[in-house]
Amino acid sequence: MPHVLHVITALPVGGAQSQLYELARHRTALGVDMSVVSLAERGPMGERLAALGVAVEGLGMRPARLEPGSCWRLARLIRRRRPDAVQTWLYHADLVGGLAARAAGVPRVYWNIRQTDLSSAACRWGTRAVARACAWLSASLPDAIVCNSQAALGVHAAFGYASGRLCLIDNGVDLERFRPDPDAGARLRQSLALPAGSRLIGLAARYHPHKDHAGFLAAAAAVARARADAVFVLCGEDVDEGNAALAALIARHDLARRVRLLGSRTDMPGLLAAFDLAVSASFSEGSPNALIEAMAAGTPCVATDVGDCARVLGDTGWLAPAQDPPALAAALLSALAVPTAERARRGAAARRRAEDRFAIDAMLRAYARLYAGYPALATPTPTASTSRP
Question: What is the per-residue pLDDT across 239-261, written as a single tens digit (0 to 9) for each?
Fold first, then answer.
């Protein structure tokens, strides 16, 4: 069975890491064996990968520093593993892992890009420099460059990446795990000691500037003033009571009694199915896993109009401009104001869209073609209309 070695910058809980985990979980269906190397530490996702029986190694590097010798250390490791292909994830791993794989004589190298904003406002100068180096090498170093959004294709082609190497593979969701659950809302309300009539507005995102928790909470404050039944449920890495910056934001908006912080969770299918509305408030995204997973759970969604969010939602949800809390609040209030039957219709439509466009089987078929040497090059498709408040 062919062996694909995956090299990733780090293994916290995140979107790229979650998709890597899904590839590992379905590696038999892919027809490949897998191992994983993190340039940094093994991290929490490394432990989950190891629990699947995947060999995981953390090199303890500081990838953002591109320390001298990093490439050669990794090349020696790759040479020992003798993989048939190397798949790298995120800019620093694309650069270091790609060079190391070629130095080790690996016949096929694939990069993986998840970002859509390379502006100085969204990226550190070091990350932009690494991305620029990748652009210079993109015509010769990788055999293909996987993007998970059409927005990323356009952004990176404009940034100088070789457009002929770019291909689109959409994120895939396990439709058996993420599915509607009519009783999930009642269970979550009971566990949080909330009234039966409360409306649960969920934000599932790690604490990171791009996720714009500050903007979401500013919008939540406006919604809370207009809707006494609104409760905001936040979960993700560092989204807990120990996060002083997040606690200060909640206090500033007087939301202590209206916000629940759940931290990292392993029961995301049930949580997403419990929400009345799921929100993506980011100002920089490619194709958010949490949005697709919420749709698969039959939950109507409100998202900021960044990356491929409009293409993901189609006409099933509501859009608002990024970094515009009043507009996000208006979208949330519009969604809450529609009759229960209409929200249910939107949720059912979201589930169908996830089934039609973002099933994990489609993602696995695309990666199988990639690993067989036949990447399906992306072609632009019209973006479906999406409801705006």
Answer: 999 999 999 999 999 999 999 99
Domain count, the chain: 2
The residue range of the domain holding 298 is 184-357
Is the separation of the CB atoms in 274 and 241 below 8 Å? no
Query: What local confidence, expressed as pLDDT, does residue 378 receive?
Result: 43
Lookup: tokens for 184: 């999930």
Q: What is the pLDDT of residue 389?
A: 37
**Any idea which residue has 């500081």 for tokens?**
62
Contacts of residue 102, Cβ cutoff 8 Å, sequence gap at least 6? 109, 141
Q: What is the 3-state secondary structure (H, E, C) of 130-190?
A: HHHHHHHHCCCCCCEEEECCHHHHHHHHHHCCCHHHEEECCCCECCCCCCCCCCHHHHHHH
Which amino acid, 52?
Answer: L
Residue 212 and residue 318 share a domain: yes
* Per-residue model confidence (pLDDT) at position 69: 74
Structure tokens at 191: 């566990």
Report the distance separating Cα 353 and Cα 57, nearest Å. Answer: 37
DSSP code at position 387: B
The CATH number covering residue 366 comes to 3.40.50.2000
User: Phi and psi (nearest 5°) for 96?
Assistant: -65, -45
Distances (CA, A) of 286 to 252, 280, 333: 30, 12, 25
Report mean pLDDT in 10-residue bins for the chain, 389 residues.
94 90 94 94 93 94 69 91 96 94 95 87 84 96 95 94 94 96 97 96 95 97 98 96 96 97 94 98 92 98 96 96 97 96 96 96 93 60 36
Using an 8 Å Cβ cutoff, are 293 and 351 in contact? no
Strand order from edge to edge, sheet including 199-204: 259-261, 230-235, 199-204, 277-280, 301-304, 318-320
Q: Single out the residue of 153, 176, 158, 150 nearest to residue 287, CA to CA.
A: 150
Q: Are residues 163 and 207 in the same domain?
A: no
Both structure tokens of 366? 């695309």
Which tokens in the block code for residue 112?
A: 């993986």
